[in-house]
Design brief:
This protein is an alpha+beta fold. The protein is 36% helix and 16% strand. The strands form three sheets. The chain has a two-stranded antiparallel ribbon with strand order 1-2. Strand 5 and strand 6 form a beta hairpin. The longest helix has 13 residues. The two termini are 28 Å apart. 30% of the residues are buried. The model has no long low-confidence stretch (mean pLDDT 91).
Length: 135
């Protein structure tokens, strides 16, 4: 993947993880350009298959395309940042990310978006730049 594609993905994401919304500027490491559909499942390097992801979201998502909704126990597709709107599946309640749909709940669960360290990072970031100011 070339530098122009990487730059385009970062710009499109506004410098935020497209899953947990943590800004890249909140961490001392570069976020990953993530393949939404992994190459092993037929994904490619087209911009429509790439997302900006923090290291934790990328690590926990891995090549997964689906997960179990902890409420219904049904297997559902994970959130797809190119095809779906974040606010249709998630709500930010302070630092806590609430899954609003089976897709949202399964994604929150699989990516461990509300792990204690991640909650602390979002709390710290929200103290510096409240959600309204983060847009």
């Amino acid at each position: 993947m070339d530098a122009a594609a990487r730059s385009s993905v970062r710009e499109r994401a506004g410098g935020r993880c497209e899953y947990c919304l943590l800004p890249e500027s909140a961490l001392e490491q570069t976020f990953h350009i993530e393949h939404i559909t992994a190459k092993q499942h037929g994904g490619d390097d087209q911009l429509t298959n790439l997302a900006l992801a923090c290291d934790r979201c990328n690590l926990y998502k891995g090549p997964n395309l689906s997960a179990v909704d902890p409420q219904s126990l049904q297997v559902v597709l994970l959130f797809h940042p190119r095809r779906e709107e974040w606010t249709e599946h998630f709500r930010l309640n302070g630092a806590f990310i609430e899954g609003l749909s089976p897709v949202g709940r399964a994604t929150v669960h699989l990516l461990r978006m509300n792990a204690p360290i991640r909650l602390r990072m979002r709390e710290q970031w929200n103290a510096i730049a409240p959600p309204d100011a983060q847009a």
